[in-house]
C-alpha cells in the first residue's frame, strides 16, 4: 500500500465514554480513575470483589455476565452465579490450606471455570498464575517452580502435562470437575480477603530475549487503570456484548478478557475451540457481539478468507480493537470497507498492566499508528543518553513512572526489574518507535531479539535451550523471520553434532521435540542446518542479529 493511500479515518459519530480526549488528558488525575469503584468509598480493596461481587451488591446480580460457546455447547451465567461460583471455589481453596500470598496456578482451557478459578484465587488474597492451555510439561514446570506454586487447579485431561514430581513446592492438585461437583458444605459466607494496594494478585510469565520466562507480578492497585481503560478504550456500555479472543494465560486474555470488561459490568463471551473464520463470524452473528478485541494475525487470517464474511450478519459490531503486534493499514482499510467499523490499535505490555497508547473511538485514526497516550500517561522517545529526541525521530519507547498498572516486581529477579528503569523516571519498553507532532506513536521494531509471532511473545533463549537438549544438536540460534500473516515465524539455525546427517525426518523430529516439551507456538516452523553459527569473537555468544539480517537479505 503506497503512502498516499494512508488516509486518516475520522471517528464514527455516536456517544463515546470519552467524548473529549484532549480536554480530559489535560486535567486527568489517576485518583479520578477510582471513582465508581467500591474501595474508593469503603477503603477496602480486592480486585476480585470489584470485578464481580460489587455488581451483585449494587443490584445487578441478574445481568448476564458471560456466554460460553464451544461447538454446539452454550452456557450463560449471571453476575450472581459467577459470584456464587467464585465463593464456592474460594471455600474449597481455603479448605485446602491456601492462604494470603500463596501462588496458585490455573491450567484450564478457555472455559468459565478458568475465569472463575482465577477470580477465586485472588478473592482469598492469593496470587493467581494463569497458564496458557497449550503449554507442555517443561513450560508448566519452569513457571510453577520459579515462584514455588503450592496449588494447581486443572482438569483430568490437562493434568497429563503437569510433571508433579518435578515441582517440589506443589502440594495439591485440584480438578475443576471435582470442585464443580462437590457443592455440599456451601454457605452464604463471603470469602473476600481485603488487601493492601501493593499486595500481589496476578503473575504472568513472559519472555525476553535472554533467560527463561520472567514472572511479572501485578498488584491490586492495577484495578483503577484496568477499570478506566475498559470504560474509555473498550468503550463498554450497559447493553454491549464483548468478546476478547485471547486465553487468560496471556495478559490480554486476563486484563481485557476478564478484569477490564467485568469491572465495567460487560456481558462477555468466552469461546472455546480453535480459530476458524466461519465459527468466529457465526459467533458474532449469533450472540450479537458489539465490541471485539483481537490481534492482527487473526484479522489477517480473516481477511485472507475473502468473502466468507458476506454469509453472516455482522451488523452488531460497533467497535473493534487490536493488540500485540503491528497492525498493518491494509487490515484497517479492510474492516472499514467490509464492516464499516474501524480497528483501534492499542499498545501495552505484560509489564504495564493495562493500556498505555491507544486509539479512542472518538478520535481520528492514523493507520500505521498505535495511537496516543492514555490520559495520565506520558510517553517519551529517548536516545541512548536517555534524552527525549525530536518529533519524527525513532528512539526507545519509554513511559514516565509511575502509573497504577505498572508491575510490582519481576518474581525473584530484582536485576531484571531494575533493567526496565535504567533512565531515571522512565520505564523502558524495549520497543523502538517515533512520535509525530500530534502525539501519535508509530511502532518501528523491537530493540532486542524477542520474537513476536501472531502477537505471542517468544524468547529465543527458551527455544534454543530446548533445541540443544536434542541429541542431534550442538548449537542453535533462533530468530523471528518476517511473515505476511503471523508477523514473524520462529526460525532455528542449528549446527548438528558429529555423526548426525540432515534429513527431513530428523528436522521433523526436532520440531516435534520442541512442540511436545514446550508448546506448539514456539516450535520452529523452519529449521536450517549450518556448518557454524556467527558468534561474537570475545564471548562466543551467538549473534542472532546476524542470522536475522542474513535471513532478510536472502529473502530479498
Ligand atoms: C510487546 C508486548 C499486552 C498486549 C499483548 C502483548 C508488542 C504490543 C503492539 C502494537 C506493535 C505491539 C511490543 C510489546 N506489541 N502491542 N499495538 N503494535 N507491537 O503483550 O506479550 O507483553 O508483548 O508486544 O513489542 O513490547 P506482551
Structural notes for this entry:
- The mean pLDDT is 95.
- The longest helix is centred in the first third of the chain and has 17 residues, at 79-95.
- The protein is of the alpha/beta class and 556 residues long.
- The chain is globular, with a radius of gyration of 23 Å.
- The protein has 2 domains: 3-182 and 190-435, Rossmann fold (3-Layer(aba) Sandwich); 453-555, GMP Synthetase, Chain A, domain 3.
- The protein is built from 16 helices and 25 strands.
- 5'-O-[(S)-butoxy(hydroxy)phosphoryl]adenosine binds at residues 206, 251-252, 323-326, 345-350, 370, 429-431, 443, 446, 452, 457.
Quick overview of this protein structure:
With 556 residues, the protein is of the alpha/beta class.
Counting copies of identical and different chains, the oligomeric state is single chain
Say which CATH homologous superfamily of the largest domain is assigned. Answer: ANL, N-terminal domain
Q: Strand sequence of the main sheet, in spatial order?
A: 2-1-10-9-11-12-13-14-15
Broad shape: globular
* Distinct small-molecule ligands in the complex: 5'-O-[(S)-butoxy(hydroxy)phosphoryl]adenosine
Q: How many independent structural domains?
A: 2
What is the second-level CATH architecture of the largest domain? 3-Layer(aba) Sandwich
User: What level of helicity do the residues show?
Assistant: 25-40%
Structural category is: alpha/beta
Query: Mean of the pLDDT scores?
Result: 95
CATH-assigned fold name of the largest domain: Rossmann fold
**Unreliable segments (pLDDT under 50, ≥5 consecutive)?**
none
The fraction of residues in strands falls at 15-25%
Span between N and C termini? 18 Å
